[in-house]
Amino acid sequence: MIRFLFADQLHNFPKLRDTMFQDRAFQFKTRLNWAVNVDENGFETDEYDTMNPLYVIWEMPDGQHGGSMRLMPTTGRCMINEHFGHLMDDGPVQSPMIWESTRFCLSRHAKPRTANALMLAGGEFMKGCGVKQYVGVFDQRMIRIYRMIGASPKLLGQSGQGKDFIGIGLWAYDQDLHIRVSNIAGISLEQSQEWFEHSFGSNPQFARAG
Tens of pLDDT along 2-52? Predict the structure, then answer.
């Protein structure tokens, strides 16, 4: 199932929290060899994890992390503006209707279409909270995953080639796209909405843009 959890709620789900940060360490440090920090617990975290971001997490039946992504409003500090602004010709992205998506991570034990479920949940958050667009950084391997999911981004900027490629992408909410992602994921829109309402209720106001 999908859970939407702010950082200050993660302590209520210790197994989910711990395996998420451990899976991030394996994916980003061990497998991809990114210059990220891994602590003595084997957790990969950064400064943005201390800013109470929202995590969209696929929880497996045993309570462990299957996949996740991290969402933050661009009205505050965010990775895209502080570390990758040089790739965007139009300058920093700052809008209550645009959120940043980072740290897209899949567990080694993730079931097929976990990535699809995460993208569907991301769209559910947009629909439910009035967010119009996501912006995010991605590497070359994600191009194929986004295409498979059925939600390829608009490219805003890029640098490098091959394994050195870094892209800045923009995803806009569209109902037809949301339906397509749902169909490819094999998860009904009703189920997706039920997961969202389980976390936020039927009329969330905490992050509604505008």
Answer: 999 999 999 999 999 999 999 999 999 999 999 999 999 999 999 999 999
Instruction: Give the number of other Cβ atoms within 10 Å of residue 87's Cβ.
Output: 15
DSSP state string for 123-187: HHHHHHHT--EEEEEEEHHHHHHHHHHT-PPEEEEEE-SGGG-EEEEEEE--HHHHHHHHHHHT-
Taking only the tens place, the pLDDT of each residue in 166-181 is: 999 999 999 999 999 9
> Using an 8 Å Cβ cutoff, are 146 and 61 in contact?
no
- Name, in order, each residue with C-beta under 8 angstroms of 156's C-beta and a sequence gap of 6 or more: 87, 88, 90, 135, 168, 169, 170
Percentage above 70 pLDDT, the chain = 96
Measure the CA–CA gap between 110 and 65, rounded to whole angstroms.
Answer: 8
Q: Compute the distance between CA of residue 35 and CA of residue 177 in angstroms, rounded to an integer.
A: 34
- The verdict on pTM exceeding 0.85 is yes
Task: Give pLDDT, residue 201.
Answer: 84
Instruction: Return d(Cα 7, Cα 19) in angstroms, integer.
Output: 14
Residues of the chain by 3-state class (helix, strand, coil), percent to 5: 40, 25, 35
Q: Which of 116, 124, 101, 106 is nearest to 191 (CA)?
A: 124
CATH level 2 (architecture), domain 2-200: 3-Layer(aba) Sandwich (3.40)
